[in-house]
Amino acid sequence: MVFEGFALILAVLSLIVALGILIGWFEDLESDSGSQSNPNSQVQLAPQVGVLHRIYNKAISGEPISWGLIGVTSGTVFTVLWYCFKINPVISAVVSCGFAMMVHVSLATSAHFGRTSGVKVFGQPLYLDVVAFNLPLIAAHGFIGATAVVTLSYIFYTSFFRLEGLLGYPIPIPILGLLLGIMAGAIGSSTGDVHYGAERQFQHYPFGEGVPSKNFGHITTKAEAGWRTSADITYFCSRYGGPMAGLCYGSILFLDNIRLLVGNFAGSLMGLLFGVIIIVGLFAINRFLEVTSRRKFGPYQ
């Protein structure tokens, strides 16, 4: 019985980490589809320095706030359908995330129209085919990420009571969705953008020197064939930035829940000590990577 209970906990933990990877991965790709990452300011600035483009430019807000809204909206609708109307959780998740994407797409549309209209004085056209092509891309990636957020919130909420508190959190699902969404947006902004900024938007400039202020707004507008679009950026990020953001999210959930398990099995003090060990270990790894990279590639120019 003890072995079976431990195996069940490991299975739930594995599912939590897998969902975390999906959340981070598709959150980053959704934001890249609409230029809602940190480099978005370069897309917004481009027409002002004479660089016209065909890149979708929504940036409803920062990624944490935008995905916090997605998480709390889908989580609230899910709770109403599942808890109040007793609808199957799978159906409730699909319907709630579909509704959240309707809200998100409406905001993404008005944001793109408003931002593009704001730079009309600089000659930036409003391409309706760009809107029609990229909105399904934004909605599709957002829907997958939102579904993973709702599913993970459901697992956290229900596993806390079914596994005697060893996993999960006694927090309402809408609040869990809000927190997980904010966390996803923060990870996408910090981790995913590493493979989206100077590497892709300033591809025609030498790599390794950062982006000098004299080049601000002079983004790369030509793709491998024709004009660059958000689809090109999303394809590029699906190989680098998205997986790294997903790995970061999944790693955080794995380490935090391992710390939670240690604390529940061995006591709160041991859980706290294990958390300190994790933090010190991460600092040591980051320092080692930075020092090794600078020795190998030299200082930034």
Topology:
Elements: H1 2-33, H2 40-45, H3 63-84, H4 89-118, H5 128-162, H6 173-190, H7 197-201, H8 230-237, H9 241-266, H10 268-297
Summarize the model shown:
The protein is mostly helical and 301 residues long. It has helices at residues 2-33, 40-45, 63-84, 89-118, 128-162, 173-190, 197-201, 230-237, 241-266, 268-297. It folds into two domains: 15-252, no CATH class; 267-301.
What would you say this structure looks like, in words?
The chain is mainly alpha-helical. The chain has 2 domains: 15-252, no CATH class; 267-301. It is 70% helix and 0% strand. The protein has 10 helices and no strands. The chain has helices at residues 2-33, 40-45, 63-84, 89-118, 128-162, 173-190, 197-201, 230-237, 241-266, 268-297. α1 (2-33) packs antiparallel against α9 and α9 (241-266) packs antiparallel against α10. The protein starts with a helix and ends with a helix.
List keywords for this structure.
0% strand; mainly alpha; 301 residues; 2 domains; flat; 10 helices
> Residue share in helices?
over 70%
Largest sheet: number of strands, sense, barrel closure: none
Radius of gyration: 21 Å
Order of helix and strand elements from N to C terminus: HHHHHHHHHH
Query: Count of DSSP helices?
Result: 10
Give the low-confidence spans.
none
The general outline is flat
Q: How many strand units?
A: 0
